[in-house]
């Protein structure tokens, strides 16, 4: 078990009206079949992402009551089971970024291939290969950067994707944004500080 | 050792035996009882020691005596204690008479004491087992090992046993840290190479060891949770799972069979139960914690997210997942494996034993029997877990997660075909799920299909129709083998009655979207406006077309509703282009045909108009159907398209879908000009149209309206009110005149018997108004004239005149209609003038102080002679002058008032007369005369007076003769003059008799007369040249024209003044008279010096002397200068160097010119020399005669 390290299983961008804007799913290593496959079906990922909205609401209520959590980083939202955990971030405008991390998404060789061998080996001696709270920050930062880039596109109308009054909204169709998401999801491993 | 051991220590063997006895106080019985008590206790002790357990004995004695005789009781107690060898701490005396509170307190004390005793007991036991372990020898078996109830143990096994026991005892002592330590030690040893590794997996001992490991792990978790080490507990849970999995995988039957999954599920449930039982404080639903923060000591470490202890919902969810995995694995078993052992070959049974892990779960043939009967009810277990999890999530407001679990649950139930519960579970979820409104289409779709299949099984027709209606939408992924035909929804279902479904707006995602656009922003009542209804079908490609029965559009405001009904072969074939079909629909008022009776039942005022039309209402997939309608507008106000109701009807069912306009996505503002081209309607709300009130057809005309009206003339304004309506109008008139100093006006209705008093307005705050003047009925296409009489206005001003006619038609008395006319009334001053008061020399001599007659001769004449001055001519002037001389004895002065008035009117005006009105102090008598030529009485044009064109200047001069009443009055006096112009408008048509003469009075600035300072007046007169015939002298054939200059010095003061007068020679003229002289003036006297001037002829320089009006016009004696140009005729200006000096003050006095003279720039006097008629002769041989 210690040969597996976390990887991103799914990146979700959720609009102000709690509507899905973009969902990117990444395959995880499956030790049984020895290849990469997503751990869940897209429908299940949708359900997982949508269930994080509960937590966002809960936290927002809690934060409003206690007056903390202005940074927008919600940290760990919840762990769905011992493998999947959801981390969240909310921008000032109510757009939410959700990262679903598969705690056993990569083999250790994958990490070596990614050039992280020295960092890894030190840590593998430790009891648990877990995550620190701050390790999701680069992901959110990169996602936000990508989102800001998207917003800077004059042809992108944010109101179309999350109407100020009303429900739903269109999904993001920008290929560049999708590519960015894909890049972020594929390159992130624990300890990466810059994406 | 097994569970019985724990049972023994936990439930069966007491650590302390507490006995209750009565302590009899009766002295006669006391000893007997005490003795009986002692024997009893001793018996007990004996029994206890016989049992081999070191159970402590404690005694409570209830005394029935009062507490005051403590001593004797104490003695007795001591005796009992000693006799029974009871610890002093374990003997209690409870006085019987204590109150319940006291007793309670006492019981607490007792428990505390006994607690210590119990701990002592367990410590002894713990010490015992530690001692045994420390001894390190395997004890001889007490029973022969063959019995089957007991096995021989290795050294390591004994160690595990002792560790476990001491851990248990520590746990009983509540020393959780120690207990944990011992448990961990036992666990490690158990899983160590000597025990679990050494046991073969086929042996039942293997499972027993696993069981023991599980038990230890559970106990560990319990300790950790009690200790508040939540993350450690989670981690412990995980590590045990991992280790066992590793073991089972390596040594056992692998982890890919149902047995392992069963264990995993069990392990998760155990954790959930443990969390529930230990009642972790952070997980009460009120705290809303989903998981607990890790303890401080592991905070910095890299933690698995799962190691934050989550609430039980998550654990149950996990268990459910494992259970379903178990079910999958069980179902994957081959049929051979599932045969009961009795009916399968022995080799197969043996094989099964190695393939399937049956640790704590049934054998394959029980797990999933071949015949389907019995077996494990996986679904029930899963649903059970999911329901528990769901309730936990709901408690923490995780509604979406709960919904997800419901969906899972429903799918599970669907597998066992428990459709009813599926529908129950999902119906409410489907009605108001957040996934739909938030756009999680995939989830909504999944849920919908799940519910649909259940509904189809149950036969819930309404639900099926609604779901099918929604799933027609293109948003949802297409199912390949689905018919997508709403009419076939109820195939195979036979509802009892024909279902009728009504879907509200927003209830589900309809596949049709609609928008309505009015072409114009405004419309007028009584007219109609065009609107377009666009319905876009987003149905799945290839789905059957939906034929609607009718479409109802609801409007707010006066437009009622529009109903479009389906008609297959509609009259107008729609124009199609691409995906757009455009058709025009003609509407008819439903009230006019059959539905009338039905409508009449309703309240008349609430009756809303229903317009009906027929069109083809077939909606093809992804086609936009546009209906153009003409909507008549009835009443004023805002009208807005509100909602839409689509009705679908088939043989099997009815369906109605409501849609509201204007909710975000639906609202578009495209106007379809044709099927292929659109234009954007740039309006904020194209859904609405503003209906303006019916335009009034009554007209107010002012045919004789003029741009300007003039001051001081009565103004008559005529208006015509023309009724262009089809019916007679009963009208009332309101008139407002607004401005500064508004006059009171009156109104006359021409043609009506003008009463004695015309209605007139009231003036309030610069507003003159007249309200509600009844005009009576104006018949259709008739006109009524109203005349407004405004009195003369003195000041020029601007007024706003508002005429408002409120009327209603005789056919429709309820609707008032208003017509207003706004006019601007400009009242301007027609004339403006400026004035010059020029001094003149009074011809009469001043009275002398020394002339007695002159001063006193005629005093006390009437002072009111002023009045007759207005109509005076020249002849009258002479007479009045004589009169004045007699009545007024003061000094006199003559002036000439020159006025220049200009017309500021915009049209020609005719001035009939001009005059001045003079007002002076009482001590001054003043006459004025109009100089001739001011106003020609008969103009060249017809009529009297002079025609003055706009912006021309006309001059009028008046002579003023002023005389003081007495000589003693020497104060200055003022002269107030106003200038009066009488004029008429030029009416070429009207006869002059009707012309109203208006009088405009212009005030003239005040002048001052009779200053006390001395003044010097110069006057000039000309002596015409003597005709040669008259001249008898031979010396000079002809005297040239001479100019006589009088210098008159007036001394109005009471001082004796001396003046020096000097005349400098000039090359312009020769003169005779004193070159330098001195004049002495008595108080109130005047003297004059006379010079005779002869201008020297010289070539006339082109002097650019302008012909000033004073020079030109104020020369009555001068013959008319041709062309007005003085220079052309040879006249010149000469400047005599005349200086008058006050000798005493050494001050030069200004010489004031009078007629025929003017001042030059330096203040000198210029004299006009008229041209000499015989200049040519004079110039030939004349020698200039130098004066003196």
TrEMBL record, chain A:
**Descriptive protein name:** Longin-like domain-containing protein
Tell me the Gene3D superfamilies matching this sequence.
3.30.450.70
Q: Which organism is it from?
A: Lasiosphaeria miniovina
An example GO biological process term is: endoplasmic reticulum to Golgi vesicle-mediated transport
Gene Ontology cellular component list:
cytoplasm
- Membrane-spanning residues: none
Q: Which Pfam families match?
A: Sedlin_N
Q: Which InterPro entries match?
A: Longin-like_dom_sf, Sedlin
From TrEMBL, chain B:
* Name by which UniProt lists this protein: Gryzun, putative trafficking through golgi-domain-containing protein
Sequence segments annotated as region (Disordered): 857-876, 1094-1130
- Which portions of the chain have biased composition (kind: Pro residues)? 1096-1107
**Species name:** Lasiosphaeria miniovina
Q: Which residues form the Gryzun putative trafficking through Golgi domain?
A: 501-1098, 1131-1170
Domain Trafficking protein particle complex subunit: from-to ranges = 205-473
């Amino acid at each position: 078990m210690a040969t597996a390290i976390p990887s991103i299983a799914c990146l979700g961008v959720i609009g102000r009206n709690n509507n899905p804007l973009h969902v990117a799913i990444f395959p995880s290593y499956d030790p049984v079949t020895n290849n990469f496959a997503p751990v869940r079906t897209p429908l299940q990922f949708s359900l997982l992402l949508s269930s994080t909205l509960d937590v966002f609401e809960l936290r927002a209520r809690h934060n409003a009551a206690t007056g903390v959590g202005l940074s927008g980083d919600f940290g760990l939202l919840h762990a769905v089971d011992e493998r999947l955990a959801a981390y969240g971030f909310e921008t000032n405008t109510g757009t939410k970024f959700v990262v679903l991390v598969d705690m056993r998404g990569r083999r250790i060789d994958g990490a070596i291939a990614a050039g992280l061998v020295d960092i890894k080996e030190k840590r593998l001696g430790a009891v648990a290969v877990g995550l620190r709270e701050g390790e999701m920050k680069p992901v959110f930062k990169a996602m936000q950067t990508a989102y800001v880039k998207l917003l800077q596109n004059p042809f992108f109308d944010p109101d179309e994707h999350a109407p100020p009054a009303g429900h739903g909204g269109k999904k993001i169709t920008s290929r560049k944004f999708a590519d960015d998401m894909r890049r972020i999801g594929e390159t992130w491993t624990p300890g990466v500080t810059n994406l | 050792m097994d569970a019985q051991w724990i049972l023994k220590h936990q439930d069966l063997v007491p650590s302390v035996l507490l006995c209750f006895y009565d302590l009899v106080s009766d002295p006669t019985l006391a000893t007997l009882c005490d003795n009986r008590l002692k024997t009893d206790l001793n018996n007990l002790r004996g029994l206890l020691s016989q049992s081999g357990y070191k159970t402590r004995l404690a005694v409570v004695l209830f005394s029935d005596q009062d507490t005051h005789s403590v001593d004797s009781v104490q003695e007795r107690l001591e005796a009992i204690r000693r006799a029974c060898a009871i610890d002093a701490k374990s003997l209690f005396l409870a006085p019987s008479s204590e109150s319940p509170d006291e007793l309670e307190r006492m019981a607490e004390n007792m428990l505390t004491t006994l607690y210590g005793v119990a701990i002592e007991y367990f410590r002894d036991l713990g010490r015992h087992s530690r001692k045994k372990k420390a001894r390190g020898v395997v004890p001889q078996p007490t029973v022969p090992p063959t019995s089957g109830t007991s096995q021989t143990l290795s050294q390591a096994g004994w160690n595990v046993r002792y560790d476990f026991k001491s851990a248990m005892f520590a746990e009983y002592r509540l020393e959780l840290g120690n207990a944990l330590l011992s448990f961990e030690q036992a666990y490690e040893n158990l899983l160590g190479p000597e025990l679990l590794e050494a046991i073969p997996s086929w042996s039942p001992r293997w499972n027993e060891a696993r069981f023991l490991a599980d038990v230890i792990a559970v106990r560990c978790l319990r300790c950790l949770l009690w200790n508040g080490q939540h993350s450690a507990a989670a981690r412990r849970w995980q590590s045990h799972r991992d280790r066992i999995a590793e073991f089972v995988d390596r040594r056992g039957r692998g982890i890919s069979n149902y047995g392992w999954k069963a264990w995993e599920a069990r392990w998760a449930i155990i954790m959930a139960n443990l969390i529930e039982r230990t009642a972790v404080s952070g997980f009460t639903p009120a705290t809303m914690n989903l998981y607990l923060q890790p303890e401080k000591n592991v905070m910095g470490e890299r933690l698995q997210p799962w190691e934050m202890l989550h609430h039980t919902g998550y654990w149950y969810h996990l268990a459910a997942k494992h259970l379903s995995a178990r079910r999958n694995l069980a179902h994957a078993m081959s049929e051979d494996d599932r045969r009961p052992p009795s009916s399968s070959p022995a080799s197969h049974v043996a094989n099964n034993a190695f393939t399937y892990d049956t640790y704590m779960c049934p054998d394959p043939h029980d797990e999933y029997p071949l015949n389907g009967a019995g077996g494990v009810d996986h679904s029930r277990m899963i649903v059970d877990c999911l329901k528990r999890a769901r309730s936990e999530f709901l408690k923490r407001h995780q509604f979406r997660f709960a919904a997800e679990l419901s969906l899972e649950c429903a799918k599970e139930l669907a597998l066992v075909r428990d459709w009813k519960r599926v529908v129950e579970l999902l119906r409410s979820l489907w009605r108001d799920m957040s996934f739909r409104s938030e756009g999680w289409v995939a989830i909504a779709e999944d849920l919908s299909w799940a519910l649909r299949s259940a509904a189809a099984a149950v036969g819930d027709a309404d639900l099926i129709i609604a779901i099918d209606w929604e799933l027609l939408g293109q948003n949802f992924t297409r199912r390949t083998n689905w018919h997508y035909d709403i009419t076939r929804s109820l195939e195979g279902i036979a509802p009892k009655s024909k279902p009728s479904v009504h879907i509200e707006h927003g209830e589900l995602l309809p596949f049709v979207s609609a928008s309505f656009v009015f072409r114009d922003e405004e419309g007028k009542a009584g007219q109609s406006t065009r609107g377009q209804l666009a319905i876009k079908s987003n149905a799945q490609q290839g789905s059957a077309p939906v034929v609607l029965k009718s479409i109802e559009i609801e409007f707010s405001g006066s437009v009622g509703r529009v109903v479009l009904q389906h008609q297959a072969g509609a009259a107008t074939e729609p124009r199609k282009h691409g995906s757009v079909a455009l058709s025009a629909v003609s509407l008819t008022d439903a009230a006019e045909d059959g539905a009338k009776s039905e409508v009449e039942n309703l309240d008349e005022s609430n009756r809303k108009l229903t317009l009906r039309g027929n069109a083809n209402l077939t909606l093809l997939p992804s086609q936009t159907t546009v209906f153009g309608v003409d909507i008549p507008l009835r009443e004023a106000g805002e009208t807005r398209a509100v909602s839409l109701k689509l009705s679908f009807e088939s043989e099997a069912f009815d369906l109605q879908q409501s849609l509201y306009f204007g909710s975000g996505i639906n609202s578009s503002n495209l106007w379809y000009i044709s099927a292929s081209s659109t234009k954007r309607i740039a309006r904020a709300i194209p859904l609405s149209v503003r209906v303006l009130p019916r335009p009034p057809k009554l007209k107010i005309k002012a045919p004789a309206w003029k741009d300007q009206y003039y001051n001081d003339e009565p103004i008559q304004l005529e208006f015509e009110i023309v009724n262009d309506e089809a019916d007679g109008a009963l009208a009332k008139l309101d008139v407002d005149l607004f401005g500064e100093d508004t006059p009171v006006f009156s109104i006359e209705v021409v043609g009506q018997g003008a009463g004695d008093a015309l209605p007139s307005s009231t003036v309030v705050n610069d507003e003159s108004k007249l309200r509600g003047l009844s005009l009576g009925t104006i018949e259709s296409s008739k006109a009524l004239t109203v005349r407004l009489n405004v009195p003369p206005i003195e000041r020029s001003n601007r007024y706003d005149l508002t005429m408002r006619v409120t009327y209603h038609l005789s056919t429709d008395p309820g609707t008032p209609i208003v017509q207003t006319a706004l006019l601007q009334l400009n009242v301007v001053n027609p004339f403006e003038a400026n004035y010059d008061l020029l001094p003149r020399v009074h011809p009469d001599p001043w009275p002398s102080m020394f002339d007695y007659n002159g001063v006193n001769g005629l005093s006390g004449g009437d002072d009111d002679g002023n009045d007759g001055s207005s109509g005076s001519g020249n002849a009258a002037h002479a007479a009045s002058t004589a009169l004045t001389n007699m009545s007024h004895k003061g000094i006199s002065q003559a002036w000439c008032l020159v006025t220049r008035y200009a017309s500021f009117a915009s049209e020609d005006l005719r001035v009939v007369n001009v005059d001045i009105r003079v007002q002076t102090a009482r001590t001054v008598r003043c006459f004025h005369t109009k100089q001739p030529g001011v106003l020609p009485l008969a103009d060249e044009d017809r009529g009297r007076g002079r025609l003055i064109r706009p912006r021309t200047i006309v001059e009028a001069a008046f002579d003023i003769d002023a005389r003081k009443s007495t000589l003693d009055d020497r104060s200055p006096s003022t002269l107030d003059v106003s200038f009066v112009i009488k004029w008429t408008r030029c009416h070429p048509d009207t006869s002059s008799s009707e012309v109203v003469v208006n009088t405009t009075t212009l005030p003239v600035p005040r002048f001052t007369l009779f200053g006390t300072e001395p003044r010097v007046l110069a006057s000039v007169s000309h002596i015409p040249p003597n005709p040669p015939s008259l001249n008898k002298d031979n010396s000079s054939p002809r005297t040239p024209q001479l100019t006589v200059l009088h210098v008159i010095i007036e001394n109005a003061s009471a001082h004796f003044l001396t003046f020096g007068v000097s005349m400098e020679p000039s090359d312009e003229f020769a003169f005779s008279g004193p070159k330098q002289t001195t004049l002495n003036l008595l108080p109130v006297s005047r003297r004059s010096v006379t010079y005779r001037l002869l201008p020297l002829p010289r070539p006339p320089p082109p002097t650019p002397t302008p012909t000033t009006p004073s020079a030109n016009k104020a020369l009555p004696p001068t013959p008319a200068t041709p062309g007005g140009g003085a220079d052309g005729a040879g006249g010149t200006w000469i400047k005599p160097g005349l200086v008058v000096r006050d000798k005493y003050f050494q001050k030069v006095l200004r010489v004031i010119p009078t007629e025929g003279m003017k001042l030059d720039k330096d203040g000198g006097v210029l004299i006009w020399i008229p041209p000499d008629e015989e200049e040519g002769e004079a110039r030939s041989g004349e020698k200039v005669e130098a004066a003196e």
